[in-house]
Amino acid sequence: MDLWKISLNEYNNYDNKKYETLFTLANGYRGIRGALEFSSKGNRGNYIAGIFDKSQSQVTEIVNLQDPLGFNIYIEDEKVDMDECVLDNFNRELDMQSGVLNTRFIATTKKGKSIDIRCERFVSRNKINRWASKYELTPLNFNGKVFIENYIDGSVTNGAWDVMNKNKHFKVKSIFDSNPGIALTIETNDNNMKSLELTTLMGENERGNIFKTRRYSEFGETVSEVYETYMTEGKTATIFKYGISLSDKDMKCDLFTAGTSELKDFIKDGYGAELEEHKKIWRKIWDEIDIKISGDEKAQLGIRFNLFQLAASAYDGDTKVSIAAKALHGEGYKGHIFWDTEVFMLPFFIYTRPKVAKALLMYRYNTLKGARENAAITGYKGARFAWEAADEGLEVTPKWGFDYDGNAVRIWTGDEEYHINSDIAFGIVEYYRATNDKEFLVNYGIEILLDTAKFWQSRVEYSKAEDRYEISSVIGPDEFHEHVDNNVFTNYLAKWNIEKALFFKDWLKTEDNVVYKVLCSKLGLNDEDFKLWDIMAEKMYIPKSEDGMIIEQFQGYFDLADIKITQYDENEMPVWPDFEGNKLGETQLIKQADVAQLMIMLPEEFTDEVKKSNYEYYEKRTMHKSSLSPSMYSILGLAVGDRQNAYKYFMKAIFTDLEDNQGNTDFGLHAAASGGSWQSAIFGFVGLRVNKEGILNINPWLPEQWEDLSFNINWKGSRVSISILKDKIKVDSTGKITLNIYDKKYLIDKEKQLVIAR
Amino acid sequence: MDLWKISLNEYNNYDNKKYETLFTLANGYRGIRGALEFSSKGNRGNYIAGIFDKSQSQVTEIVNLQDPLGFNIYIEDEKVDMDECVLDNFNRELDMQSGVLNTRFIATTKKGKSIDIRCERFVSRNKINRWASKYELTPLNFNGKVFIENYIDGSVTNGAWDVMNKNKHFKVKSIFDSNPGIALTIETNDNNMKSLELTTLMGENERGNIFKTRRYSEFGETVSEVYETYMTEGKTATIFKYGISLSDKDMKCDLFTAGTSELKDFIKDGYGAELEEHKKIWRKIWDEIDIKISGDEKAQLGIRFNLFQLAASAYDGDTKVSIAAKALHGEGYKGHIFWDTEVFMLPFFIYTRPKVAKALLMYRYNTLKGARENAAITGYKGARFAWEAADEGLEVTPKWGFDYDGNAVRIWTGDEEYHINSDIAFGIVEYYRATNDKEFLVNYGIEILLDTAKFWQSRVEYSKAEDRYEISSVIGPDEFHEHVDNNVFTNYLAKWNIEKALFFKDWLKTEDNVVYKVLCSKLGLNDEDFKLWDIMAEKMYIPKSEDGMIIEQFQGYFDLADIKITQYDENEMPVWPDFEGNKLGETQLIKQADVAQLMIMLPEEFTDEVKKSNYEYYEKRTMHKSSLSPSMYSILGLAVGDRQNAYKYFMKAIFTDLEDNQGNTDFGLHAAASGGSWQSAIFGFVGLRVNKEGILNINPWLPEQWEDLSFNINWKGSRVSISILKDKIKVDSTGKITLNIYDKKYLIDKEKQLVIAR
């Protein structure tokens, strides 16, 4: 097994959508789903992060842009169509090490002509506006005319699979014979945002150019160039397709002029040179992100898939976009950004690619205006980050959706899932703690901490009877229960958010008094507020069991019908217990980690004993109906000694998409599960956490078959390499750091390897 | 076997294009190819006779208009796609008697849901702008939500199968939510001709309307309405799709206003009522056109297919359109009009539907302006009808095409195939002879006869040496030989054309002297011309063998390599003989009937002996590489006693498309073969011809297995019904007529049946 390659050896067009997701190539700027040029089955997708449009949709959504992949081969009058030809030697392979997608097959047409087709595609990480394909075509049993069509399809819609909800978010603005190549510009309906796709072909064999004539055509919303060539049995022709994608998000000048010049530069640089640069960058990224697992090939391949896709979904070049729940891999959740980013994905970036982590947090800073508007229009103060956010930070959660039976149901998450605010605050503190990036904290982070705290100030309710602060009618991470009061996850993190705001404003006061004063003035805060925050934090209500050992997920939860999970399916996932007579929300069954989630995020706030009793209580009641859940339980399980389930949950998390275990990989990557996979490995098996003093701890435990778990992290500017072996642990660091291993403190110095026995 | 139905019981999407042609529904005004709504494979076609456009094409072509057939069924989230579902009980049936296309199958989706689908479609012969479908849908193993999508696709191109030549001939002009229904208007590129498609759905079961919600959408070049409904296992829902098609060819008012009002009227009248009217008209048409053959089911079904499609391809409501070589059934020959119409199809209409025949001839009259322009720009006088004509009568034959090996070759037919002029004159004389329509002759027909004769006057060349008139460098019906001199078919018919012009101008002079004078003045003719015409006709060179028995197809033909056909393939068609060392044009092999064609068109001009020797000579050298050829040889064969081959050629002709024996039925009907089929039955087996005195003759011979051959014809306003039985012949007539049977004269009076023994 090549532990860098995701392979597919059987073609079944019913699975095309799933593999389009798995084989998506992205570079943070944009994503192109792994569509097959030679099949019309599937759902092609071409997305540029940050290009959203609402027009006829219920809410704004990421725009599925014009499709530049169009490529047809006609052997005389027969089009090579995978769904009509006989296929042999079919293979697709995502080479994660180099970020290249390979497709190979032999197609035999109805008339019996066989052609060997090998395609290579990459979306450049070197120059983000570049992408390219290479086609190696070898006639196996014929000589003759072959027509190669290159086209850009502007007839694309969003939600093409859903006839009641599909929408077209743009108009084709202009079509050009661009010399070189063909160009198609679109303009989004609402904001008139433009995007250009520009592509051309260069065909050659050992004697140079193979193209004889070119025909340029426009067909309504499609632009096409067709090249005639003559192919000879057994001789391979190589065709390079060069692509340039631009949007006026990137540049305000004329897209067409800029694009044409970029395409010429790309051709001048050459396909091979660009591919080399692209691979070089992926090598560098892998050096930062890889987790090596020896002794468990499945786990090794699986974790790499998640690291690859996560790293592909973000870059540090744009501070106005973030990673959607389905990343750049599909239209599920409409390209919206959830807490998934800060709570599930961000830790990966903080510890491996901190510049990207900063860019992701900057997206929140840059959408504060929308967050403030969300607060204002719902009657609150400060910043209320949207449960689902898009380009402006405004709340874009749909108000209506469908339940499992297809009945329309009101979606309350956008109204009630307030914890997103503290989740973002959490991301900021985590980022600062690991990077020591004061510049970010002073200029951006603290403003968010203060303004989210200010929101909580306006949101909490004082109960005179109990002399405590409460937060009623919310939804916690467990979305089976709506309109609940005093969800602990929400209350605890609100309290924590306020505390961190207070802590860092004190810090800022001395660190940079001018910024402090400007912020107080800008946000309308003074010592009266801070005094009140202190009280609020102190008196925040946290429901618990009578003995204090089990946190009550929300007020009244323990009074619900106590239905427990007793059976597991063939995938070791919970089977719905019988809860006849009760609605789901009337039981203690929960969708996903909620109290457990809190304990993972703030491990230092709970004793091991409390963690264990809560883990045991809630694990039996968690249905894992969110891909966010298994990885979290693996982490908490490891913290409390449940090693058996930890591995199961880890594997579940890393194979969320590869095994399509939520059944909806068609619609995009489960990016939070990818982030959770990293956390499960590093926070779970390695046991990496930062204690109250800010010291890094590791506390590794590896499954029996794992012989070595190696990875790198960034810690306050140092690059720390850790290998957990059967009998020892090796640590290297590029800078002086303190590290607790199994609760024992070690000082590690630059270029002096620490080796300790296990 | 139902002798009214063309059936298909196996689904293979590779054959979709062929069956789209065979199952085309047309009403003269327009044709809709028999596409399957539930498959994306094939080449949908929607044509309105007379809507042509050139724009990027080599020559103007009939426009494949926006497609109104769009209809999808979604069972929850699964689209019913014939190419993805498992199909059972598949059956398609063209009911020729009523002009209705039925499709039926049971589709089972990937998720195992089975639905029984029965579709009925007709293109109304009652109101030509109406067409409709009925869908009966029965869930076989599920209850649940079903979404029905009705859409009009404006992304259509011509030549979609041909990547180097496909073109889009229109722009989508406007899209409306038209209440009722959806509407999409297009405008052709060159002439800004508009066409509107307007459709809507009405769904019902036994309790009335079944639709719950409707969604209207526009997607670029497509407009869609989707209805949500709930279906129950075993219960049939019936959905009617109403369609209105208009063009500004029909009306100069606002298409959208007119269309909406027409659609409302259609819904008011109801699907059933319109279908009844449509069937009533088809019953009437069949009463005029049917040929009943007892004792030979294959021949019966085959001949009916040709009669049906020919009758479907024309109507008497438009004098500015004619029947294309591929009728309204496909884009082959670009929708152009050839001699096929006058020489092959027109006789059918003259004898069965004379009003339609008149409309077809009026198309030539109405395009005289173009014909005069053709003459002028090639240096001639009078009217030169185009070898290939479209909307304006200008020559639109492509200048370049491809040979069998795909090499570009210059097409000379538009330059040299002059005989089209006499072919049209021939049609006029035939029409007049059978109908006695003096009004047509006086006001339109003679003008054509004179102006084509005037063309010949300018075209013939006088040879002083031989004291004869010659026509050099032409192509005759046999297109294997180009640039030939004195092709007899051309020369003979030119001579005949001049003679008929002279004859009818004399007739006109007494019949209507004013028209005569006006015509002379308009066409610039005087007695000097007429005198010259007389000489030209008399001295026209007709090459013959030395004994005068065999006409030499063209001057020098006998000197060519005399390669004869010696072998026949499994379909009894000629196998290419070896002509190594010669090019095809250097041999005596010919493409199709040429001298034979002349003898069929002008049977009274040649003795039986001459016919026989020419038949025998040329039959051995004719490759039948045109679908126009076999039927003609069957007629001449029967005239000279070759009964064995006659039946073979007849069957070949009637199965041209049903058995796709030219291999290109995909691209449309071989309408000339359909016309030839009628001629083969009536002019061949019945031996119907008009002698020099203008008396109708029949001289029947039937193949052994034929027990009865019955048909109706119109003869000078009388309807004559003839039955040829084994032992007798029965003739009825609605008016007094004279009829020669086996060269014996009979007078037949109104409502007195003539019965004679055979």
Précis, in short:
The structure is a homodimer of 758-residue chains. By secondary structure, chain A is α+β, with helices and mostly antiparallel strands.
Commentary on this structure:
- The structure is a homodimer of 758-residue chains.
- Chain A starts with a strand and ends with a strand.
- The longest helix of chain A has 24 residues, at 488-511.
- Chain A contains 18 helices and 33 strands.
- Chain A has 758 residues and is of the alpha+beta class.
- In chain A, a hairpin with a 4-residue loop joins strand 9 (86-95) and strand 10 (100-108).
- In chain A, the strands form eight sheets. In chain A, strands 1, 9, 10, 11, 12, 14, 15, 16, 17 and 20 form a ten-stranded antiparallel beta sheet that branches. Chain A has a five-stranded antiparallel beta sheet with strand order 8-7-13-19-18, with no helix packed on it.
- In chain A, helix 5 (340-352) packs parallel to helix 9, helix 9 (420-435) crosses helix 11 (488-511) and helix 15 (608-619) crosses helix 16.
- Chain A binds chain B through residues 13-14, 40-41, 56, 72, 74, 76-77, 79, 83-84, 110, 144-145, 147, 149, 154-155, 157, 161-164, 166-168, 171-172, 215, 217-222, 226, 228, 406, and chain B through 13-14, 40-41, 56, 72, 74, 76-77, 79, 83-84, 110, 144-145, 147, 149, 154-155, 157, 161-164, 166-168, 171-172, 215, 217-222, 226, 228, 406.
